[in-house]
Design a protein that fits this description.
The protein has about 425 residues and is α/β, with parallel strands linked by helices. The chain has 2 domains: about 10-155 and about 320-380, Periplasmic binding protein-like II (D-Maltodextrin-Binding Protein, domain 2), CATH 3.40.190.10; about 155-310, D-Maltodextrin-Binding Protein, domain 2 (3-Layer(aba) Sandwich), CATH 3.40.190. Helix content is about 40%, strand content about 15%. It is built from 18 helices and 12 strands. The chain has helices at about 50-55, 55-70, 80-95, 110-115, 135, 160-170, 175-190, 205-215, 235-255, 265-270, 285, 330-340, 345-355, 360-365, 375-380, 390-395, 400-410, 415-430; strands spanning about 40-45, 70-80, 100-105, 140, 145, 150-160, 200, 220-225, 230, 275-280, 300-305, 320-325. The strands form 3 sheets. Strands 1, 2, 3, 6, 7, 10, 11 and 12 form an 8-stranded mixed beta sheet that branches. It has a two-stranded antiparallel sheet with strand order 4-5. It has a two-stranded antiparallel ribbon with strand order 8-9. Helix 17 runs antiparallel to helix 18 (about 415-430). The longest helix has 17 residues, at about 235-255. The chain is globular, with a radius of gyration of 22 Å. The two termini are about 25 Å apart. Mean pLDDT is about 90; it is low at about 1-30.
Length: about 425
């Protein structure tokens, strides 16, 4: 999945600057070194999204940094989501880690738990009192901040308005789920002659969507109990109800291979084999690009809040990126200041102007009333996130939720599959590895 994260710190509240500092520990007192006298370099790893989508922001921050730190060299490189974690693990193990690294918000927990990231002073960053709650939580472990929210994302309904217009008489996506299901039935009937057409293309192994329905029913993947341990709760009644609802929708509307995940769902929509998908906002560009989609759909594909059960929008998983300073950075003062500049109010406004959700509620507010951003902006404030448990990384790595869904669509009951998944999670979820 596409996600991103960054972390920063101000010069006034500096972290340890020596390479030999204890893992994850802040310096006992601020440094008095003038920024113009700081030497050396700051190595920054950003994801290639920044290079493609806001190179002007990167240049703006690098220019600002150079003016403040004229003797410090910025060594910037861009990385791919599929390979970044492996590259970072190797760099950390060899003592060649970058000073600043962008992390997807589901990647942060592992590095917070194992001491790879420097502790940060939340109050030293712009808008820290108004950070989007779900995103700030991805940077926090045991009440300590280890990274800074960079930008946010939320899933929305992405649909072909012409198909809905032709089938239902309205180009608008219904706002209640009951109305949506009625509309989907009409869309499915209208295009039943199109081979492989899905009125709602909802992939079977799409666990982010499945857990949104679990959340909508008041369930959860796992909970933290009074004894101080996490335990899986997918077999709980409310979680099973939400999961069964997801399964029923997939079986009724997805006419493709139910074992195929959501990776190419935008292509399915872009090639006019679907009426509606539950997607990240950026997937619209995939659906309207040459080869992966159809450029002529640029004004046809629309975004809207995805209707969920109980006459409420479907709760979204909060996507996004954070920025962190690594624990053994040899130039932590300058590295933290670079992050502070990159997540400042001025920098976040560049993202807002590009219809990318910022890290804070103040700059998010106007986007709730803008047609191109309203659905995601309204969804992100109450979005859910994966458990902040020490062993969550191992659970994702072993594909426990994906395997559970595949087992259900292969014939196993929701009750049996959730009990097995919880048992597997309970073996891993409290172990930091």
């Amino acid at each position: 999945m596409k996600r991103q994260v960054l972390a920063t710190l101000s010069t006034a509240a500096l972290l340890a600057t020596a390479a030999g500092c204890s893992s994850g520990s802040p310096s006992p007192s601020p440094t008095n070194v003038d920024a113009k006298d700081v030497t050396g370099s700051v190595t920054v790893w950003l994801m290639n999204d920044a290079q493609k989508s806001w190179p002007d922001l990167v240049q703006q921050v690098n220019d600002e940094f150079a003016a403040k730190y004229p003797k410090v060299q910025i060594k910037l490189s861009y990385h791919e989501w599929g390979t970044k974690v492996g590259e970072l693990d190797e760099a950390l193990a060899s003592g060649q880690a970058p000073d600043v690294v962008e992390l997807g918000n589901t990647e942060t927990l592992k590095y917070m738990v194992n001491g790879s990231l420097l502790k940060l002073d939340r109050g030293s960053f712009d808008n820290s009192d108004n950070w989007i709650k779900g995103l700030a939580e991805t940077c926090t472990y045991k009440d300590t901040l280890y990274c800074v929210p960079y930008y946010a994302g939320a899933r929305v309904g992405l649909y072909n308005s012409k198909m809905f217009q032709d089938a239902t008489g309205s180009a608008e996506l219904p706002q209640s789920e009951d109305q949506l299901l009625g509309a989907l039935d009409k869309v499915a009937n209208k295009y039943k002659g199109t081979p492989g057409y899905s009125a709602l293309y909802l992939p079977g192994p799409y666990w982010y969507a499945a857990m949104s329905y679990v959340n909508a029913y008041g369930g959860a993947i796992a909970r933290y109990d009074s004894s101080g341990n996490w335990h899986g709760t997918l077999h709980d009644t409310k979680s099973q109800q939400g999961l069964q609802h997801f399964v029923d929708l997939v079986r009724k509307y997805n006419k493709g291979d139910l074992k195929v995940n959501e990776q190419d769902q935008a292509k399915v929509l872009g090639h006019e084999k679907a009426g509606l998908i539950y997607a990240n906002g950026w997937e619209q560009s995939v659906a309207t690009a040459p080869i992966t989609g159809t450029p002529a759909l640029q004004d046809v594909l629309k975004v809207a809040a995805m209707p969920g059960p109980n006459d409420k929008p479907l709760p979204s998983f909060i996507g996004g990126s954070d920025l962190a300073v690594t624990a053994k950075s040899a130039n932590a003062q300058a590295a933290a200041d670079w992050v502070r500049m990159f997540t400042s109010t001025k920098s976040e406004q560049v993202l807002v102007d590009k219809d990318t959700l910022p890290n804070n509620l103040v700059q998010l507010a106007p986007m709730k009333n803008k047609a191109t951003t309203a659905a995601a902006a309204n969804a992100v404030q109450d979005a859910w996130f994966t458990p902040a448990a020490p062993g969550w990384g191992a659970i994702e790595k072993q594909n426990i939720l994906t395997n559970m869904l595949n087992a259900i669509f292969a014939g196993k009951s929701v009750e049996d599959a959730t009990k097995e998944a919880d048992a597997q999670m309970d073996q891993l979820i409290n172990d930091a590895g």
